[in-house]
Amino acid sequence: MSGKRILVVEDNLDNRRILVYRLKRIGEFEILEASNGQEALEIVKQDPPPDLVFMDLKMPVMDGWEATRQIRKLDGGASIPIIALTAQAMAGDEQKALAAGCDDYLAKPIVDLGVVRSKMERLLER
After folding, report:
1. What CATH superfamily is the domain 5-124?
2. Strand 82-86's sheet: what is its strand order?
3. Fewer CB within 10 Å, N- or C-terminus of the chain?
């Protein structure tokens, strides 16, 4: 799993730093960062694209819902695993995220690194 390009899309700098720190504890990754969905879309268009995206759903400029839909329309975008992140987990949000094109879902704050690792391993090995 190490050596993969991971994109962390999160508008809250503290939350982004915490997730990046935790990812570095899981493995040796090239970690890319974006603070909104528009920045994420530009990064995903780069060659090579990220191997996995952690996508906050509520952000300014372009939210994670729209960014996910736009990524899915790109050449090769359908094969990039996207894990939705949300701090305001409400009933139905997970199903809504999956319906928008996300492959998995995590509620913030992310506490259990084992859960993150298992989701990443499952999505990166397909």
Report:
1. Response regulator (3.40.50.2300)
2. 30-34, 5-9, 52-56, 82-86, 104-107
3. C
